[in-house]
Amino acid sequence: MARPEEQDRASLAASLGSTVRRLREGRGWTQQDLADRLYVTPSRVAQVELATDPPNEALAQDLDRVLDAGDELNVAWFHMNRLGHPSWERPYVDLERRACRMRGYAPQLVPGILQTAGYAAALFSVVRPGISDEVLKRLVEARTSRQSLLGGRDPLHLWAVLDETILMRPFGDDESVMRDQLSHLLLTAAQPNVELQILPLEAGHHGMMDGPVTLLEFPDGPGVAYLAGTRGGDLAESPHTVKQYAMIYDRLIFNSLSPEESRDLIRSTLKERYGCPPPPPPPNDT
């Protein structure tokens, strides 16, 4: 028997699919007509409408645009996808979407918002033994969808400090997992709204050795600190506590490699440990 959480997600997927069909038929379009505008197959449109294979975020955005849904489909997708996150993580994910600035320290794992699909899948496979392929797919999609916050017209500003051990530790059953992940870090760090620094081992002990910490700032309210783990997390909202974590974070930045030095270290790790040249920088928009 499906868990209530899975039933809720299936219900939301069915509602999204029904909305797509209503909007499509309202325009007098066949599934082929819609598929042609989306550059997908008619069977993919049918899967969405029947909720047998709900859309990912990119397809949901295309559907909303092509059908001129006024964000109705984007909002529906968000509520459906929200259930892909563990229940303890959802309050944080909601806050993350509202934030204008994020600062975070990661001692052992690449931060969720920067994880590739391969890295996330390898992580979920070991922290949730026996996980089904369907649940794994949903968790990975929910995790990687958070990266969309770093793009768009008003992107989230991210400042991330990663411990050097993250670069050194093999991850996944194949070297390609870390090759892809490190390449992704380099490409993301090239974005103007992203700063990435590495805290070297030589920095010694510091005030965030207990675990990962994320500081969120909002345009319309006080900030929060989030202390996360693989199976739980705690929000700290006290201004005094948030200020303490911010002070510790500032010291971490001071003791970390500069952004350019950090990118050089990732490049050398790719080359020396994985025999892989770094990815070319993204093309300039100018």
UniProtKB/TrEMBL annotation:
InterPro entries in the record: Cro/C1-type_HTH, DUF5753, Lambda_DNA-bd_dom_sf
HTH cro/C1-type domain sequence ranges: 20-73
CDD domains reported in the protein's UniProt record: HTH_XRE
Annotated source species: Streptomyces boncukensis
A GO term, aspect molecular function: DNA binding
SMART domains documented for this protein: HTH_XRE
Official protein name in the record: Helix-turn-helix domain-containing protein
Pfam families to which the protein is assigned, alphabetical: DUF5753 (PF19054), HTH_31 (PF13560)
Signal sequence region: none
